[in-house]
Every structure is written in C-alpha cells, then in structure tokens.
Specification:
The structure is a homodimer of 445-residue chains. Chain A folds into two domains: 3-167 and 274-398, 3-Layer(bba) Sandwich (FAD/NAD(P)-binding domain); 172-270, FAD/NAD(P)-binding domain. Chain A has helices spanning 11-25, 85-89, 99-112, 207-218, 324-338, 347-362, 367-385, 394-406, 440-444; strands spanning 3-7, 32-36, 119-120, 123-131, 136-143, 148-149, 153-155, 157-160, 167-168, 182-185, 199-203, 223-227, 241-244, 247-251, 254-257, 262-264, 267-270, 274-275, 298-299, 303-304, 312-314. Chain A is globular and about 65 Å long. With 445 residues, chain A is an alpha/beta fold. Chain A contains nine helices and 21 strands. Chain A has a five-stranded parallel sheet, with no helix packed on it. Chains A, B: Belongs to the FMO family.
Chain lengths: 445, 445
C-alpha cells in the first residue's frame, strides 16, 4: 500500500501537499500522506521566530529568518504560474517582497486546496529505518506539545523536505573564544537594530553576508568589515562597508586579517553558510553533500538511489537560484512517480543521467552559468513530469543579476515583468534603503 | 553480563568513572563501562563554549557557562574529602573559585586514576531501548567527528548523567517578537562585556538572575531591571539594579510590568531556568520532573523504578545546594548497587522510602530548610552506601546563606574553613566587584 511520510511543511513540503490535494480535488485517488512539521506553523524558513538556539522543547530552532528581510530575488523569479501574485493580491505589488508578504502569498496557494490538512504541527521525526524485508520504512515521531512519543508508523515512501538553511556552518578562528562581544551566525540574526552604532565584522561573501551587511548599515551600524576567503564581493558598497581578506585571528576585540591589517569590532557575525544535516536519518538514508546545484546520489536531484527501491526522495536540496517554482516541479515530479503515473528507468540509466548533470556542473564557474544550469534542470523536470507550465525565467534572473552587480544598494528598487501575467510590478513608495517599516500593510497597502 | 552505559562526562559522570577506576586500581574486577560524551572535553557545564545555539554538528550546545563565572558556593561547600583543594593546589586559594579553577580541581581528581579512559568524546547517544525479553538495553550512538552512526550496543545498565541546566525554559511574553534588541536566555549568556553601557531587563529571581545582574553591573551595564513572578529577591543591590513585578507585555523597546510601570531597555535576558530534557530517551525511560530536591520515581534519588528491573539510574537530577559531593556519593552508591555489593529492597519498601522523602520535602519552604533537607539526603546515601567520609557541611552552607543575604555585593569576598583540612581560605587580592581578570593565573598565582 502506498503511504507517504513527508517531513517538513515549508515551501517544498507544502508544494507536494498542494499537488496531492489538487489531484484529490480533481477526483484522483491519492495515497495516505502524513506530513510531520517541527514548527507550530507551516511555511518553514518564512516563519519569523523570536527565539534563537533551541525551541521551547529543546530542539534546535529551524528558522534563520530576520525581521527586515526582503527577498533577494524579484518575485517574478519565483512566481508560481498557476497562482500568480496578481491573482493573490488582486493588484500589482513591488518586485522585491518581504517575509510577511512572501509567506502570505505562499500560504494563499496552499489554502485554495486546503493542503494543510495533512500536516501534524509541533511533531518531530526522531528516527527512520528502512526495512528491507517488507520494503518499507518505520518512522518514530514525537508530539512536542503533548510531550509524548507517538506509536511508530509504517510508510512505503519517505519524502524529506526539511531544507538546508538551518544548521550553521561556523568555523573556528584562533582566539574567537576570547572575544568579549557577541559572536553569532546569520542563523541567529533577528533584527539589525541590535547593532545600531556598532562596529561589526561580517565573515563570508555570499548572499547572507551581502544582505546582512546592508541591513545593518540601513539600520544604523557604524561600520562593517567584511572578511572572506574567496576574495572581495566587489560591489559598490556604501562608505560604511569595507572588504578585507580572510580573518586570521582574534585577540580581545581586535581582529587580524591575512594581509596583516587589523581593526577593533563590537560583534562578529558569521555568514558562513549552512550544512545539510539530517539528524533523524540513519547513515544509509542520509544525504551527505556540500551546498551544490546537483547533490550526489539523487536521480533528477530527487530520488535517493542508495536504498535501491527508489522510495526515499529529497525535495529542495539544491543550492538555489530557482526556489518556489523548482520545489514545485520537483514535488509534482515526485507525486507522479509515487502515484505510479511515471516509471523510473533502470539503475544504469539513472546513473548515466546523474553523471551527465554532474559533468555539466563542472563547467559552471559564474552566477550566470549557474542560472543557466538550474534553468536547464528545472526545464528537464517540467518536460519529464508533464508539468503544465514553462518555468524558464532565465532572462529575469540574468537581468536581475546585472542590476545587482551595477548597484547592490539600489537593485531592490527595480521592477520586473511577470512572465505569466505580463504585469510590470509597481515601485515601492520609497527606495529600499529608506524603507524602515516593511510590515505587510506598509508593503501591500 | 554487567555492562554499563554511562551518558555524560560532567562532574556526575566523572565521579562514577572515578569510583570505578579506583575500585579497579584496588584490584576489584569492574564491569565493562562506556561513557558517551557529546562535547569534545570532559567536565560538562564547566567547559566554556564560545558557540551558542547548536554545535558544529548541529546538536544543541550543552554548556551554559559564561566567561566570568565565579562559583556562588564557597568551595568548602563542594570540596571532595578524598581530594581536597589544599592537596590539588598545594596551597590555600580563595573560597569562591572561578570556572577555570573549578574545572582544574575536578579534573585533577579524575586524573589520579585515569578515569577519562572510559570516555568516548564527541559521541552522542541517539536512542535507548529497553528489551524486556533480554532484560537489557540497546543503545544507538553517533560519532560526530567521523559523522557516522556507530553499531548499536547492548548494556545491562544505563546511567544518565547529562545534567539539567542545558535546555532553557523560556516562556513567551506578549510582544517579545517585536522587541528590536537581543533576547537571550542565560544559557546563551557568554560575556557581560557585551552589555556595557546598556539598559537591561533580566527576567527571573533565582541564582542566574542574581549572578548575571551583578556580572553585568560589574562590567559596566548602565542599568538593570529585574522582573519576577515570585516577588523581589530583596537583596541590597547596587544602585544600578532595580526590582519590578512580573513582566506583562513588550511594545518595541518598552517593557510593561504588572504594576503598570514601564521602562525602555536595550536587551532582555531570560534567567528563567531550565527543563529536564532527555531527547535520547523514549517515554518509558524518561524522567519527567520539575527542578526539585526530590524528583519522582527515583529510589534514593537515583534508581528509575518504572522499568521494574532497577537497572536504569540517574545521577545529579536534583535541584542543588550540594553539588560535587552529592554527585560523588550518588555515583558511589550506584556503583555498589551495579557491582552487586549492595542489594535493593523490594518495590514496596522503595516506594515507602520515596514517599517519606517527598512528604518531608513538603515541609521545605525556605533556603535554610532546603539545605537541611539535602544534607539529610546526602547523609542518608553516605550511610546506605558505606561512603568513607562525612559529607555534612550544613553549617558552612547556612553561614554562607546568611552572608549572601547580608550583602549580595560582598559575600564572595568571605573566607570559609575546610571541614576536611581545617584550612581557612585566603582572601582574593581585591574584592569580587573589582576583579576583572579572573583567569586561572590571576586567581591561583
């Protein structure tokens, strides 16, 4: 009997439930599905959590969301073709949305088919075991509100949609244990106003480093030194932000860089990325990977080939340019496979396919290359699953990337045109760097 | 076959290993013992960890230690009679010790019998199951450095010594999610210097609230408002510290109290205690308790009576006046039971004994009562196990408590006399509130 255990009710998991609920609405017989969600709400990373560290039950906090986050993608890059922004809001809104607005949009789509009915909130998966004799999986979960282990359950399929921006990668630097101020990872960053008037060291050179540095300047940080291994980000920064090579060591409040220069700072923010971590899975089911556009051992980036039965799947485990739409087509593809509407090829064909992608990935050396690669991946899934829409928004991505390189300070003031409605976004009432109230009302109304 | 799984290599776990190693040294045949320790060092809470939240493997940080912590007990309250401070340091040191000095003392004792040889560092216990047919336990662990599940192992006995000051109790207050500054639990407090010049709200009225408030004033916080449900702590505070009733709500930076007063603060520190949490244990083995001087379902405060075989034990799960010496006699008592040198009475006698203690506990209504209660508990274990020393230091505790009530600012400047050596501690070179360098060298040399 087909019975699906879905782990995680963020954008990826909810896309899978959306497709299942929609199929059911269309009169299809869908299998039993249970979605376990650790948080008290659906939406994954898009929920804001005032806590850091562990939650009220002692489990690591999932969220890495900060109060004033704006998407670093124009919404036209992740708009879902069967549920457009125009449809949800009934009017045009700016291209760069905020956390409340984004979550509102996503949950609007789930609500159309009551997809949340499958979700058990506040429930953690503790362990999953594959039973080769029965060719199924046993899942142990715990109800955190009742503070009780749940009876173990059997499932034919496991779908892991727990995200990979939750467990901080936080390397040691000599002397960090002597630093007198706050040392935090971007995972624990909640509100830039904490750092008003402060001198900061930001370690890292990827999206978090760039966005958190700008946030802090916007909300009044005195100065920011960005340090990275991979060389300067090279944007035209506001004068408060300077770039330095990699941090070498820390002595008290003084941070020393590889080039021999040093400065004093009040706090250190690690923007050094995340680790793919699945503490609820045993080694034989556990994806082990760097953050890459094509993780190993996943056919079509989805099916875990190492158990051999192809009934363990992962959604959204790629590094991401495409986000919501990629999760959506992955989920749709996975549903069709699980429902038996689509047959997987033999193992050797799957391996050849994976090798082909991994070879292609070796030629990706820039952001534009990455956008092209992931566009091709998403379009391959569209074709292979019979997804009804063309998700290629490569041109918007490339245009956005050029604008971002031209001006990191103003790129969120740009407007883009929806591929699906033709609507050109309206402008924010003020430039990004002058908008301090980015509540739902302020952005939408 | 007797085979012990000990979980945790803090002061409690190391006391058990000390006794086993010592028995071995004395020519006794001791059972196989494996101690699993999540951290990379022995010493439990006494290790300082610059990280907060999760460790480099994504597991919740164990430690709640802050840089400038001094014991709030005179060392004469926790001195181990067979390994005195005089013996370890070769001279008299002050009564109130610091984290480095305390850990150095504790580890000195372990080293005398090489007790760390039983410890597997960086190894987490993921699950424990009791097998009624075999009357043993299966333990699943994971080597965090190798990032590998270890083969499951069978044990006759489980001893849980993981402490109960690791998982924050952090209640919600209306509006906390809108507060723009840092909101942290004392578990994540690392260095008071972060709060220099700041106005703080400290929630709570127990030892952490008192100690962290004083720390922050000592290192330059501008003002501190202490808010608590249970009424003012009532000490003669320095002028920077004021007491308020319970927090009612938060609006932006403004915190409102039950009495209608309000103030603006820069950061909120929860000193609201910890939860007994054992996420690696299933419900049938899991101690569920408030922080109390006599947790339920533990015969002699140690043996878990609910599995029926009396082979699951907990060390150090009590609320604590006595610390190191209580863990030590508990460990000694547990060793004697496990080695068969001591027989447990029938179930009904154990239940009568537990009821007697719990009835007695109902009459404890003050700190002096609590000290007397725990003295009696510790002395009962001494007698019952044939522990070679008299651990009663009630008089020192009561004297200390009086001095603390007289002056919270100066009580750590007092000296006490060791029950075991007769030595009167030397004084610190300066009063507590003026000592800013409390490194090992500064305190000992």
């Amino acid at each position: 009997m087909t019975r699906i255990c879905l782990i995680g009710a963020g954008p990826s998991g909810m896309s899978m439930l959306y497709h299942l609920a929609k199929m059911e609405e269309q009169g299809k017989c869908i299998p039993d599905v249970v979605c376990y969600e650790k948080q008290s709400n659906c939406g994954g990373l898009w929920n804001f959590d005032w806590r850091t560290g562990v939650d009220e039950h002692g489990e690591p906090i999932h969220g890495s969301m900060y109060r004033h986050l704006w998407t670093n993608l124009a919404k036209e890059c992740f708009e879902l073709p069967d549920y457009t922004f125009d449809h949800h809001f009934g009017k045009s809104i700016p291209s760069f949305t905020t956390r409340e607005v984004t979550l509102d949009y996503l949950s609007g789509r789930w609500k159309t088919v009551n997809a949340t009915k499958f979700v058990r909130l506040n429930t953690i998966v503790k362990n999953v075991v594959y039973n080769p004799d029965e060719d199924n999986f046993t899942v142990w979960a715990r109800d955190q509100v009742e503070d009780k282990d749940l009876p173990s359950e059997q499932f034919s399929h496991i779908v892991v949609a727990t995200g990979h921006f939750s467990v901080p990668n936080m390397p040691y630097f000599k002397g960090v244990e002597t630093f007198p101020g706050r040392v935090l990872h971007s995972h624990d960053f909640r509100d830039a106003r904490e750092f008003k008037g402060k001198e900061l060291l930001v370690i890292g050179s990827s999206f978090s480093a760039e966005d958190i540095s700008l946030q802090c300047v916007k909300f009044g940080a005195k100065s920011i030194v960005c340090s990275s291994r991979s060389g300067p980000m090279g944007f035209k920064w506001p004068e408060e932000i300077k770039e330095k090579p990699l941090l070498e060591r820390i002595e008290g409040q003084t941070v020393f860089f590889k080039d021999g220069t040093f400065t004093e700072v009040d706090a250190i923010i690690y923007c050094t990325g995340y680790k793919h971590t699945f503490s609820f899975l045993p080694d034989n089911l556990r994806l082990q990977t760097e953050n890459t556009l094509y993780p190993p051992n996943l056919y079509k980036g989805i099916v875990w080939i190492k158990t051999g039965n192809n009934k363990l799947m992962y959604i959204g485990m790629q590094n991401q340019y495409y986000t919501m739409t990629m999760f959506d087509v992955q989920s749709f593809w996975a549903c069709r496979v699980i429902l038996g509407e689509k047959t997987l090829p033999e193992r050797d064909i799957m391996e050849t396919d994976m090798s082909r992608w991994i070879q292609k990935l070796e030629r990706v050396t820039s952001i534009p290359d990455g956008i092209d690669f992931q566009t091709e991946y998403v379009m391959d899934l569209c074709g292979d699953s019979g997804y009804q829409h063309n998700l290629d928004v490569k041109d918007i991505f490339q245009d956005l990337n050029r604008k971002r390189k031209e001006s990191i300070i103003t790129y969120k003031d740009n407007v883009f045109k929806s591929k699906f409605t033709g609507t050109v976004s309206c402008k924010h009432h003020k430039p990004f760097m002058s908008v301090f109230d980015d509540s739902y009302d302020a952005i939408v109304n």
